[in-house]
Amino acid sequence: MFEISQLRSFIAVASELHFGRAAVRLHITQPPLSRQVQALEDALGVKLFTRTSRSVQLTTAGRAFLQEARRLMEQAESAMVVARRAADIDSGLLTIGLIGAATYHVLPRVVAIARRSLPHIELAFRELSTAEQLDALALHQIDIGLGRLPAGARGVVTRRISREPLVLAAPHDHPLALSSQLRLQDLGDHPFIAYEPDPGGVIHGLLEAAFAQAHFSPNVVQRIRLTQTALSLVSVGIGVALVPQTAQHACFANVVFRSMIIDTNPKLDMHAFWREDSVNPVLPSFRDLLIADGESA
């Protein structure tokens, strides 16, 4: 069996086609380099080079072996990187994708967990839609995603980390703001701000099912994609909106929140999701802490 050092010596000579230059490249003298190549040829049972006093050339076997030798060296170097990372699981970089809604309550939890239990981990955040996060995971651009997964999401491992109801957001002087608990029918003909029916949009689907069950159609005056936009429109009196409960943590003037009684009892789930084959050594510790925190919340 040959050794990594022998492969390294062979690749250097094959690249330079000169033992002297290869020895300089490897920061060794020529005799031990020649011995390494000879030992590799003996282990393989073939000649890798033809040597004359004026030139060094690869044999047919040498040319065929060169491609495999380079591939083996790349694999060996990758294995060393993985091993070194695994030996230092308490430090490193973790790239987290998250939807805008996660900034209300999940992002503060994430930062608190890291600071408390994994202070040497560096966190990098990318605000992306759930669909964009799934693409980023597939390309190894993020390590873990936080979002509202549509049904049938494939290729990732998922765990729910929070669940919340919908509440009414209304201007503070709106008639509905005077009630502590409301039903869908109480929306009546009041101007209503609805979510766009985006592909994979979870809130729109939940509300459509709730309205159908209640045999009620709201007076939609605006359609939006983001909860932040809905709250902005509510704050200036454009209408009222049904939003995730954690949107109460957002700072918008002139907006109050009221509980809703909805027959379908819609709940919004926030999921953490990641690749099962991730090699980032800091991911398991962070992921397990996040899931445990979600279960205790």
**Uncertain segments of ≥5 residues (pLDDT<50)?**
none
Task: Please state the average pLDDT score.
Answer: 89
Estimated structural class: alpha/beta
Assembly type of the chains comes to single chain
Q: Could you state the order of secondary-structure elements as H and E?
A: HHHEEHEHEHEEEEEHEHEEEH
Distance between the termini: 56 Å
According to DSSP, the number of beta strands is: 13
The overall number of domains is 3
Radius of gyration: 30 Å
Helices, by number, come to 9
Helix content: 40-55%
CATH superfamily of the largest domain: Periplasmic binding protein-like II
Question: What is the CATH class designation of the largest domain?
Answer: Alpha Beta
Placed side by side, the strands forming the largest sheet appear as 8-12-7-11-9-10
* Apparent shape: rod-shaped
CATH architecture of the largest domain: 3-Layer(aba) Sandwich
Q: Classify the beta-strand content into a percent band.
A: 15-25%
Largest sheet: 6 strands, mixed
CATH fold category name of the largest domain: D-Maltodextrin-Binding Protein, domain 2
